[in-house]
Every structure is written in C-alpha cells, then in structure tokens.
Amino acid sequence: MKDQNDQGFLHRYFLENSSKRLHKWIHYFDIYERHFSRFRNASPVMLEIGVFGGGSLEMWREYFGAGARIVGVDINPECKKHEQDSIEVFIGNQDDPAIIQQILRKYPRIDIVLDDGSHINDQIITSFELLYERIHPKGVYMVEDTHTCYWDEYGGGLRRAGSFIEYAKNKIDEINAVHSRNALPISPFTRITDCIAVYDSVVVFEKRPQGARQAPVTEPL
Ligand SMILES: C[S@@+](CC[C@H](N)C(=O)[O-])C[C@H]1O[C@@H](n2cnc3c(N)ncnc32)[C@H](O)[C@@H]1O
Predict the structure, then answer these.
(1) How far apart are CA 42 and CA 68, in angstroms?
(2) Where in the chain does DSSP place strands (E)?
(3) CA of 36 to the centre of ligand 1 (A)
(4) Confidence label for 6 from pLDDT (cuts 50, 70 and 90)
(5) How far does the chain reach from its first CA to its final CA, in angstroms?
(6) Does residue 170's CB lie within 6 angstroms of at least one atom of ligand 1?
(7) Burial letters for 197-220: b for 16+ Cβ neighbours within 10 Å, e otherwise?
(8) Quick one: which atom of ligand 1 is closest to the CA of 55?
(9) What would the pLDDT profile of 51-70 be if each residue is shown by its tens digit?
C-alpha cells in the first residue's frame, strides 16, 4: 500500500479534481506514470478513445504540459463541447476506418494512444489494428478496463477466441517470433514492438524499432 507521499501528479490531480468528472481505478495512476512520464513536457500528441465528460482530456493536458496536443474521439456528438485550447474532439466510432484516417491525416504524429472507449473486444482490436503501426515508432499504446475481456456482454470470456486479451497473448508469441524456428513469421509487429506490459485491467504496448538480435559473449581478460 502506498502512502500519500508516494502519489504522483496524476493521482493527486484526480484527488484534488475541481473541474470535470473523472472516474478511474486507483491502480491505473501508477501505470500511467510508468508509461507516460517520458512524454511530459515533450510536446506529445495523445489520442484518447472515449471522452465522456472531458475530465481526462483536461487531466492529460495538465500532465503533459505546454505544447501537448490532446485529441479525443467519441461516438457521442455531445463530446464535441469538450474542445478547448490544445484539445480537439472527433466524433465517430472507434472502429470506423474513416474516422481513424481523418484523425491520422490531421495528426500524422501520434505518440500516445489510450483506449478508454467502448471496451467491446472486437472494437478494441480493430482500433489497435488501425492505429498501432501508424503511431510514432517510439510511441505507446495503452488499453484500459481490459476486465471486459472476461465479460461475455463485451464479447469476452475466459480464454474466449476473439477477446482482446487472447489477441494480446498471441502478440507475446509475435514478439518472440525470431526464436520460433520459423513456426511463426516475423511480422511488422515483431519489428516495431519493444514490450507488452500486462496489468490488472490494463495492457500496454511499447513501440521501439527492433534491430537484429545479438547475443555476444564477453570473458574476463
Ligand atoms: C469510460 S468513458 C470515457 C471516460 C474518459 N476517458 C474519462 O476518463 O473521463 C467511455 C466513452 O466511450 C464512448 N464510446 C462508447 N462506444 C464508443 C465507440 N464505439 N467509439 C467511440 N467512443 C465510444 C462513450 O460515449 C463514452 O463517452
């Protein structure tokens, strides 16, 4: 259990929130800090799928600092009202290639994607496939609330084919394709992915171009 002094910026922001409604699992704040802190004050472009009350868009703008651009996409046209300085909201379905292309045309460099949208398994996968290869080569793609991967009303279920968590498990094999003795082809995902981090209800993909594997030996002189 962490004490008050361990709280990072985002957790404190959440507790002291005096602006728009925010609803988050407490353990997400550490995960955000771990994967997003390198982008602070580095003018990142973040795409958040799922805007709702607009509270998280403001939180991200505060967190990432001046120069950050926060882009939201939501199926609910009401969410357009959450646009402000440095915050743009697109209206559309997260699995619609046309809206994703529209976002990518306007923001060819996206550093961070956070999927907090429908939480429907096949939509999470479609958004990932539309976006992952297109975001920055050292970008990060986070999917939250992946507990819905275990819930049938979201297209999930324990070890159910087609759930996003099963999709992510297959991606672990793709990271290791080089060692599969040709059982699995080296895919674009293999070439561009550094790691997958799996937490309770959150999966994070860290991108980084992968060079040829080397395993040199050094010996004491
Ligand atoms: C959990 S809320 C987002 C909360 C927000 N990120 C926050 O932290 O305050 C989910 C949002 O996803 C939107 N949504 C649901 N289905 C969607 C879809 N297929 N495409 C885009 N947005 C969707 C809903 O309208 C809702 O506003």
Answers:
(1) 7
(2) 45-49, 69-74, 87-91, 112-115, 140-144, 193-199, 202-207
(3) 20
(4) low
(5) 46
(6) no
(7) eeeebbbbbebeeeeeeeeeeeee
(8) 9
(9) 999 999 999 999 999 999 99
pLDDT tens per residue, range 10-26: 999 999 988 888 888 99
The Cβ of residue 148 has, within 10 Å, a number of other Cβ atoms equal to 22
Instruction: Among 75, 102, 145, say which to mutate for ligand 1: greatest number of ligand atoms within 8 Å of CB.
Output: 75
* pLDDT tens, residue by residue, 66-118: 999 999 999 999 999 999 999 999 999 999 999 999 999 999 999 999 999 99
Q: How far is CA 147 from CA 61, 93, 131, 144, 150, in A?
A: 27, 21, 22, 8, 6
Q: How many domains does the chain have?
A: 1
In a domain? residue 192? yes
Q: What is the CATH number of the domain that holds 101?
A: 3.40.50.150
Q: Does residue 11 have an active-site annotation?
A: no
**Helix, strand or coil, per DSSP, at residue 89:** strand
| Cα–Cα distance, 144 to 56 (Å, whole number) | 13
Range of the domain at 118: 26-50+59-67+93-201
Q: Rounded to an integer, what distance in angstroms lies between the CA atom of residue 168 and that of residue 219?
A: 38
